[in-house]
Design a protein that fits this description.
Enzyme class: transferase
Keywords: ATP-binding, Carbohydrate metabolism, Kinase, Nucleotide-binding, Transferase, Xylose metabolism
Low-confidence stretches: none
Family: Belongs to the FGGY kinase family.
Oligomer: single chain
GO biological process, one term: xylulose catabolic process
Helix content: 25-40%
Number of domains: 2
Radius of gyration: 23 Å
Organism: Bifidobacterium longum subsp. infantis
CATH superfamily of the largest domain: ATPase, nucleotide binding domain
Distance between the termini: 62 Å
C-alpha cells in the first residue's frame, strides 16, 4: 500500500510551520519552519516568503495529496480588484482599532431599548452584537480594523474589492493566485475560508452561516457615505465559507504542492488557530483545552452556539461543524515569571516553595491582573495581593499565591464557559505554562477535576494536517489519530481557594 501524505500549515503570528504527515496514521514525516517579522501590522508577502521557506525546509510538497492552512485569527487582509494587498495586514494584536470597537458597540446600542433590553446603551449594544454574530466587538476582530481603515485611510477603504484573513489569503496564494495586470482577472472568487475563522470577523454568523454585509456597510460609511457604502459592501468579495470536510473548488498550484500526485493536491478549508488546535488534540463535545502562553485561553467544544450577553466569551465555531466558545485572559504564564522574578528563583525552585505552603497560601490571595484583564473585562486593572500579615508573609506562601492566582484566573474562564451551557468533562492543559511543575500539579485542585496533559507538540499544524487528511478521505468523520499523553494530573479539590479568589477579585 502506497502511503499518502498530507500537509498542515500553521501561519501564526510568530512563524510559519509546515508539517508533512502520514494521512492514515498522523505520524510526522517531515517538518519545516520559518520566522515571521515582529509587529502588529505586517506585509502579507512576508507570510508567503516564510511559507515557501518552511516548505523547502520540510523537503518540499511535491508528494503531498492534500493541504490545509491554520492561521492566526482576525487579521485583516484587504485586496484591490487586481489582487494587490492594499495596505499592511492589521493583526489580531493591533489595538489601534479599540476606539472603533467601542464606537461600534455604542452604535449598535443607539436605538431605544425594546423587549426588556437594558437601558444602558453600552450593555444594550454588546447584547445586540452577541445576538447578531456571537461576539461583541473588541480591537482584535476584523471588522473593527476595517472601520479603522475607513476612518483613517478613506482612499484605501474605497479600493477594497475583497476582505480576507491570513489563512484565507495564504490558501489563495497556494492555489496559484495573486496580483495580476490591469486587464487580467485576479480570481478573487477563488478565495475560501471556514466557519471557525469567519466567526472571528464579527461580520459572519456561524449559527446561520451568513455574512452580514450590512455591518461592513456600516463601517464603510465613514469613508464614502451610507448609500455608496451599501453598494460597495454588496460588491466586496468575501471568501466562500466551506463545510468542515469540503474541498475547495481549486487545487494547489503544482509548482507549490502536489506536482507528483495524480490529480494534484486538494486544498482543505483551513481554519483559525484555536479551532485547528482543538482538531489537532482530537477534542469532541465535552472537552476543553486550557492553553497557557503569554495569554491564557480556555476553549470548549459545544454542540450549540453560545451567546454570552456580557461579551466575555467569544462565540466562535470550531472545525468540525460544532462551536468553540472561547474565553481569554491577557495574563497567562507571565504571572509565574513575575513570581519568579519577585522571589529570585527559577521554575523548579518556585515549585518547591509553592509545595511547601498549603492550599490557600495561609490566607494570601493574588488577583493577577498585571497588564489589565480581558476576562473579566478590566483593561485598567492592576494586580493585587491581599491577606498579608507579618506571620504569613513568607516566600513559600507568596510562591503558592502566584500559582493559585494564575490557575484561579483560568478557572474563571472555565466557569463562564460552563455557565453558558457547555459541558466540561475533560480538561486538556497545553502551552508553555503546562511545563511548570507547580502549575500542572496544582491545576486539578483549583479546577476541581483531573487534568490531562498532552505531549508538547505543534497542535495547530497537526489539526491542519488532520483536516487535510479528512478531506482527502472523503469520509464524514476525521481520521482517528492517536493523541500522545504526557501525564494525567489528579488532586483533591480546593474549592475554598477559588472562593477566596472570587471574593478578592470582586
Amino acid at each position: 500500500m502506497v502511503r499518502r501524505l498530507v500537509a498542515g500549515v500553521d501561519t501564526s503570528t510568530q512563524s510559519c510551520k509546515v508539517r508533512v504527515t502520514d494521512a492514515e496514521t498522523g505520524d510526522l514525516v517531515r517538518f519545516g519552519q520559518a520566522k515571521h517579522p515582529n509587529g502588529t501590522s505586517i506585509n502579507p508577502a512576508c507570510w508567503w516568503n516564510a511559507f515557501q521557506e518552511a516548505a523547502q525546509h520540510a523537503g518540499g510538497l511535491d508528494d503531498v495529496a492534500a493541504l490545509a492552512v491554520g492561521g492566526q485569527q482576525h487579521g485583516m487582509v484587504v485586496l484591490d480588484k487586481h489582487g494587490n494587498v492594499i495596505r499592511d495586514a492589521m493583526l489580531w494584536n493591533d489595538v489601534n482599532s479599540a476606539p472603533q470597537a467601542a464606537a461600534l458597540i455604542e452604535k449598535m446600542g443607539a436605538a431605544p431599548a425594546r423587549n426588556g433590553e437594558p437601558e444602558d446603551t453600552t450593555t444594550r449594544g454588546k447584547q445586540r452584537w452577541v445576538k447578531t454574530v456571537g461576539s461583541s466587538p473588541v480591537a482584535s476582530y476584523t471588522l473593527t480594523k476595517v472601520a479603522w481603515v475607513a476612518e483613517n485611510e478613506p482612499e484605501n477603504a474605497k479600493k477594497i474589492a475583497a476582505i480576507c484573513l491570513p489563512h484565507d489569503w495564504l490558501s489563495w496564494r497556494i492555489a496559484g493566485y495573486g496580483p495580476v495586470a490591469e486587464d487580467e482577472d485576479a480570481h478573487l472568487k477563488a478565495l475560501f475560508t471556514d466557519r471557525s475563522d469567519a466567526s472571528g470577523t464579527i461580520y459572519y454568523d456561524a449559527a446561520s452561516n451568513e455574512y452580514h454585509r450590512d455591518l461592513i456597510a456600516m463601517v464603510l460609511e465613514a469613508a464614502e457615505g451610507a448609500e455608496t457604502a451599501e453598494a460597495h459592501a454588496d460588491a466586496i468579495m468575501l471568501p466562500t465559507v466551506l463545510g468542515p470536510h469540503q474541498a475547495a473548488s481549486v487545487k494547489a498550484d503544482p509548482a507549490i504542492a502536489g506536482k507528483d500526485v495524480e490529480g494534484g493536491c486538494i486544498l482543505a478549508p483551513g481554519g483559525g488557530d484555536n479551532a485547528m488546535a482543538s482538531l489537532g488534540l482530537g477534542m469532541s463535545v465535552g472537552d476543553v483545552f486550557v492553553s497557557l502562553g503569554t495569554s491564557g485561553v480556555a476553549a470548549a467544544i459545544s454542540e450549540k452556539p453560545t451567546y454570552d450577553l456580557a461579551g466575555a466569551v467569544s462565540g466562535f465555531a470550531d472545525c468540525t461543524g460544532h462551536y468553540l466558545p472561547l474565553a481569554c485572559t491577557i495574563n497567562g504564564s507571565r504571572i509565574i515569571d513575575a513570581g519568579r522574578a519577585a522571589l529570585g528563583v527559577d521554575y523548579d525552585e518556585l515549585a518547591k516553595l509553592a509545595f511547601a505552603s498549603k492550599p490557600g497560601a495561609d490566607g494570601i490571595t493574588l488577583v493577577p491582573y498585571f497588564n489589565g484583564e480581558r476576562t473579566p473585562n478590566r483593561p485598567d486593572a492592576t494586580a493585587t495581593l491581599s491577606g498579608l500579615t507579618l506571620a504569613n508573609t513568607t516566600r513559600e506562601n507568596l510562591a503558592r499565591a502566584f500559582v493559585e492566582g494564575l490557575l484561579c484566573s483560568q478557572r474563571d474562564c472555565l466557569e463562564i464557559i460552563r455557565s453558558l451551557g457547555a459541558q466540561i468533562k475533560r480538561i486538556l492543559l497545553i502551552g508553555g505554562g503546562a511545563k511548570s511543575e507547580a502549575i500542572r500539579t496544582l491545576a486539578p485542585s483549583i479546577f476541581g477535576m483531573d487534568v490531562t496533559r498532552p505531549v508538547t507538540d505543534e497542535y495547530v499544524a497537526i489539526g491542519a494536517a488532520r483536516q487535510a487528511a479528512w478531506v482527502l478521505s472523503g469520509k464524514t468523520e476525521p481520521p482517528a489519530w492517536q493523541l500522545n499523553i504526557d501525564g494525567m494530573e489528579t488532586g483533591e479539590p480546593t474549592e475554598a481557594v477559588y472562593r477566596a479568589y472570587t471574593k478578592a477579585r470582586g
